[in-house]
Structures are given as structure tokens and as C-alpha cells.
Specification:
Pfam families: DeoRC (PF00455), HTH_DeoR (PF08220). Keywords: Transcription, Transcription regulation. This is DeoR/GlpR family transcriptional regulator of sugar metabolism. There is one protein chain. With 273 residues, the protein is an alpha/beta fold. α2 crosses α3, α5 packs across α6 and α6 packs parallel to α7. The chain has two domains: 59 residues, Orthogonal Bundle (Arc Repressor Mutant, subunit A), CATH 1.10.10.10; 199 residues, Rossmann fold. The longest helix is centred in the N-terminal third of the chain and has 18 residues. The termini are far apart. It has ten helices and 15 strands.
Length: 273
């Protein structure tokens, strides 16, 4: 019995570390034991310094390390380029556009270099570098404190600027995104800023390649106002997209050229027409 308990506790730590927050109810169902047993496990793991208790569950003491933007820029390059190309096609002449920090949004900025008659505001140093020599665009920098890892501005200066502006469209990046919780980010300043960005815009898009779907590497969340649009790549399987559609999120799947595509069949099954 003790050996089974040790294995279960080791698995609880692994799940909390790889998946983020773990609730008592979820763990009880996963391991087919009572809630009381799970609470005793969490109490012991907390005493050992392996977990931190939260209301109704637990979280890893050390969250996933956050990759820098430079580390992420080459990941899923083709998927990000396709997402960026589709997103660029949605923007009309004369519109005001708000661009978040992140590698996929930076790819969108690159696609907009040939555009004219746009007002582009951004919290991203990378976007500014991408557009700094494009004279046909009106570019506004929402300054603040620079987060070096994300190359994005955050904090009260950024938030105050946002409160005085409105936009036709906002394009947000994500470390992870789920249907029930929204965008997962590394810290609360990022989540508050993204919520303000969504509120200030008529239409909200989340640009996230397939590997980001259902991912919860951190413990800070952006609650997005409905409706919003998830734009992802054709590598996303049906089962990863279904929860978003069920929550009323508009789901757009695109190929590497930015054209509408079908998601991958679930477990090799053909997609119904």
C-alpha cells in the first residue's frame, strides 16, 4: 500500500509540474481514490516542499521556466507564418490595430510591412523593430516596463495608455490557451494587460499554433470577453479544437500559406464533411 501511495504522490507532483494547477476533484478521479486520500497526499507533499497548496488543490512549487522570445522565434515557423498571413488578410485599410508581444504576433507585423493607412499600436519591442522603417504606417508604442524575456512592455504606464485608446482589432499571443480558462501566461501583469487589450478592441484574435492548445504551463490566466477568435494551424487535431467550439469560440484553422484548412483527424479517423 505504501509503495502505491508513493507512486501516486510522485505522479501528482509530475502532473502539477507539467500541467499546472491540479484540483482535488481531478486528482481523485484520475487515481480512483477518495478526496480525503488526495488531501492527505497533498498535505504530505506540501510538508515535503514539493507542492504549494491552493484553494481546492495544489500547484508546483517551481513553475515551468519561461522561454525567451529569442528562444521561441524559430519554433513552429511554418505554422506561425501561415497564421500571420491569414491574420493580415483580415485587416482592412484605415483600421486601427493593436498588436501584442510574442513571436506569432511579430510574424503578423512582418506581413503588415507592405500595408498602408493603418494605425498600429503595440506593446512589443519586436513589432516596433519590424515596422520602424515602414513610412506608410502610423505606429504607436504603448511604453512601460520592458519584460526582457518577452520583449514586451507591461505595467501602469502601458495600462494607462490603453485606457485612452480603442481599436478595431487586437491580436494576442499566448504561452498556452484553453477553452475554459483562456490564455495562460507567466505572470499577472501580462494577464491584466491582455485583458485590457481585449476590452479596448472591437474584435479579439488569439494567435496560437497547435502545440499551444490545451497547454497550461503557468498559473496566471487571461479571461477573454466573448466572442473571440482562435487562429491556429492545420496540425491541430480535432479533439484539441472541439472544446473551443463548444465554448462558443470561433475557430479558424489555416495552412502554411494562410489559407483555410482542415484540422488533423482525431486518431486517424476521417473528418466528416
Amino acid at each position: 500500500m505504501s509503495r502505491n501511495s508513493d507512486r501516486r504522490r510522485a505522479e501528482i507532483v509530475r502532473l502539477a509540474t507539467t500541467s499546472g494547477l491540479a484540483s482535488v476533484e481531478e486528482l481523485s478521479s484520475t487515481f480512483d481514490v477518495t478526496s480525503s486520500t488526495i488531501r492527505r497526499d497533498l498535505a504530505r507533499l506540501t510538508a515535503q516542499g514539493l507542492l504549494a497548496r491552493t484553494y481546492g488543490g495544489a500547484m508546483a512549487v517551481v513553475a515551468h521556466p519561461e522561454d525567451s522570445l529569442r528562444q521561441r522565434v524559430g519554433d513552429a515557423f511554418e505554422a506561425k507564418r501561415g497564421i500571420a498571413r491569414w491574420a493580415a488578410q483580415q485587416i482592412g485599410a484605415g483600421e486601427s490595430v493593436l498588436l501584442d508581444a510574442g513571436s506569432t504576433v511579430a510574424a503578423l507585423a512582418h506581413e503588415l510591412r507592405s500595408s498602408t493607412q493603418l494605425l498600429i499600436a503595440t506593446t512589443s519591442l519586436t513589432v516596433l523593430k519590424e515596422l520602424d522603417d515602414v513610412e506608410g504606417l502610423h505606429v504607436e508604442c504603448l511604453g512601460g516596463r520592458l519584460r526582457h524575456l518577452s520583449q514586451g512592455f507591461v505595467g501602469p504606464v502601458t495600462e494607462t495608455s490603453l485606457e485612452r485608446m480603442s481599436f478595431d482589432r487586437v491580436f494576442l499571443g499566448a504561452d498556452g490557451v484553453t477553452a475554459d480558462r483562456g490564455i495562460c501566461e507567466a505572470d499577472l501583469q501580462q494577464t491584466r494587460l491582455k485583458e485590457l487589450m481585449a476590452r479596448s478592441s472591437h474584435k479579439t484574435y488569439v494567435l496560437a499554433h497547435a502545440a499551444k492548445l490545451g497547454r497550461r504551463p503557468f498559473h496566471a490566466w487571461v479571461q477573454l470577453p466573448r466572442p473571440w477568435t482562435l487562429v491556429t494551424d492545420a496540425g491541430a487535431p480535432e479533439e484539441a479544437l472541439a472544446p473551443f467550439a463548444a465554448e462558443g469560440v470561433e475557430v479558424v484553422v489555416v495552412d502554411a500559406e494562410g489559407q483555410i484548412a482542415k484540422p488533423q483527424p482525431a486518431e486517424g479517423r476521417p473528418i466528416a464533411p
